[in-house]
Design goal:
- The structure is a single chain.
- This protein has about 160 residues and is mainly β.
- The chain has one domain (about 1-160): Chorismate lyase-like (Chorismate lyase, 3-Layer(aba) Sandwich), CATH 3.40.1410.10.
- About 10% of the residues lie in helices and about 40% in strands.
- It has helices spanning about 60-70, 75-80, and strands at about 1-10, 35-45, 50-60, 85-100, 130-145, 145-155.
- Strand 5 (about 130-145) and strand 6 (about 145-155) form a beta hairpin.
- Helix 1 (about 60-70) runs antiparallel to helix 2 (about 75-80).
- The chain is elongated, with a radius of gyration of 18 Å.
């Protein structure tokens, strides 16, 4: 399994700056010295995208901020914090498509009939005539000094059927 960084955008709040409109509900992530980072990655297996993930990370811990700014992946940062994270599943969506590479449920019949910006997330090479089951899930992961809001999109849910 490989991870490919699609984009990363960081903001470190100072005392004079207003906070992002996507505020945390946790007071420790309000105010100066809080890093907000938006990340987007593809997880690849044998060169194919098996998961496209978008996350918003907020960190107040100096250690977490340093590791995030160095480009460490979220799991690596969490492990370095040496606390068991709190996990909270927010939502799961399942849907069927007929040859469409959209990462969200849509009404498209084939990939030529739309111009969805989230289409094809980095090189899925499935046949345009195949019917596929897709899945997305959103969850929150928190540990002292860091919280992550993560949404994952799986372009082909059949990867979970291995061995069946």
């Amino acid at each position: 399994m490989q991870a490919e960084v699609v984009s990363t955008e960081s903001t470190l709040a100072s005392a004079a700056e207003p906070q992002d409109s996507e505020r945390s509900t946790t007071p420790e992530f309000e105010g100066a010295g809080v890093l907000t980072q938006k990340r987007e990655i593809n997880l690849l297996c044998e060169g194919k995208v098996v998961c496209h993930a978008k996350s918003t990370v907020r960190a107040s811990s100096p250690k977490a901020i340093d590791l995030l700014q160095q480009g460490f992946f979220l799991g690596q940062v969490m492990r370095s914090m040496q606390h068991i994270p709190e996990f909270s599943l927010q939502n799961v969506n399942l849907w069927e498509t007929d040859g469409c590479d959209c990462l969200v449920p849509c009404d498209h019949v084939d990939r030529d009939s739309h111009d969805n910006a989230d289409s094809d997330a980095g090189g899925s090479d499935f046949s345009a005539t195949s019917t596929r089951s897709k899945m997305s899930r959103r969850y929150l992961v928190k540990v002292d000094g860091m919280e992550c809001d993560i949404e994952e999109f799986f372009p082909d849910r059949s990867l979970f059927n291995i061995g069946m």
